[in-house]
Design a protein that fits this description.
Helix content: over 70%
Number of strands: 0
Radius of gyration: 24 Å
Order of helices and strands: HHHHHHHHHHHHH
Number of helices: 13
Largest sheet: none
Strand content: under 5%
Length: 315
């Protein structure tokens, strides 16, 4: 039970203050044990993150003074050590997943070190492709959203670099359309799994990041299509965006979540502003665009506040 559910029930019932306070403490408020667990995971995450950063800076600072065997041996030894801790220790599962996420970053460091030693082109797309493939099994078995986020970031980066370094004939609109479609499909699959599988838990921050990324890719692709009228994938991106934006708004009203309801109109405002600038680039048009942005953002905020007020009143 969430806070808003308790507020609605208390407003339309004779629920006593004592009973409300008890439910809030049991269902909503975090107790000392919860805070201790949160701080424990936070400090472990910071420790792993700083350790990985220290390893990266160690190699960067001492690169010229290290033998290639030492370079490879150190990083491989660290990966073996951390993986062994994950496999054979009796640590908490969340702690193991945090260590595994740090180890997945070390895999990228290992590939980069190998590429620098043997001049294989560590900055090419195949560096990120190899990194992605090597940690895929960990991503599948971990069921850990931060590691999923690392994996999806690598997939998107690999695709972008491939389009720049190999498939240079791909248009930018096609690239951003593909990124939008991929991230949207992952988001839809996650929502379907959450609906039909009770054993899978995906935090809201993870789906919000995915939704944000998809809308950003869509917005950038449409803007590029507006300023370049010869992109064959532009119309497809428009149609897909209309479907996705409509689904996002419907989802927001059904779940009473204002995330997509605020992000999608803001994307539309940016797109319309770009369209106006495409029509004319004189000073008068820039003045009109400025007025449009001010007015539309103001109306958007007012509308969101009204909708939130209705949701808080149980309507």
């Amino acid at each position: 039970m969430e806070r808003k559910d308790i507020e609605i029930i208390s407003r339309h019932s004779n629920w006593t203050e004592k009973g409300i306070d008890k439910v809030l403490k049991e269902e909503v408020y975090s107790d000392s044990k919860s805070w201790k667990g949160f701080l424990n995971l936070l400090f472990i995450s910071l420790g792993v993150g700083f350790t990985v950063s220290g390893i990266v800076f160690f190699f960067a600072f001492n690169w010229a003074d290290l033998h290639k065997f030492t370079k490879m041996g150190l990083i491989e030894g660290l990966i073996i050590l951390t993986t062994s801790v994950v496999l054979f220790s009796k640590l908490n599962l969340n702690v193991k997943n945090i260590i595994l996420t740090g180890t997945s970053v070390l895999v990228g460091v290992l590939i980069a070190v190998f590429g620098q030693i043997y001049q294989t082109g560590a900055n090419a797309y195949d560096f990120f492709l190899g990194w992605t493939l090597f940690i895929s099994l960990w991503v599948i078995i971990s069921n850990f959203p931060p590691l999923w986020l690392v994996f999806l970031t690598l997939v998107n980066t690999t695709f972008v670099l491939y389009s720049q370094q190999v498939a240079s004939d791909w248009s930018e609109v096609f690239v951003f359309s593909s990124l939008f479609l991929f991230n949207s499909l992952v988001l839809v699959i996650l929502h379907l799994l959450l609906k039909f599988r009770n054993d899978i838990k995906v935090p809201s921050w993870f789906t919000s990041i995915l939704g944000f990324a998809a809308i950003v890719f869509s917005t950038i692709g449409i803007i590029m299509g507006i300023f370049d009228n010869h992109q064959s994938s532009f119309l497809l991106l428009i149609l897909l965006s209309i479907v996705a934006y409509g689904a996002g708004i419907i989802y927001s009203f059904r779940t009473k979540n204002g995330f997509y309801l605020s992000l999608i109109p803001f994307s539309i405002i940016i797109i319309i502003s770009s369209l106006l600038i495409k029509i004319s680039e004189d000073a008068a048009m820039f003045f009109i665009v400025s007025l449009f942005i001010i007015a539309s953002v103001t109306l958007l905020i007012k509308g969101l506040l009204d909708i939130q007020k209705k949701w808080n009143n149980g309507k």
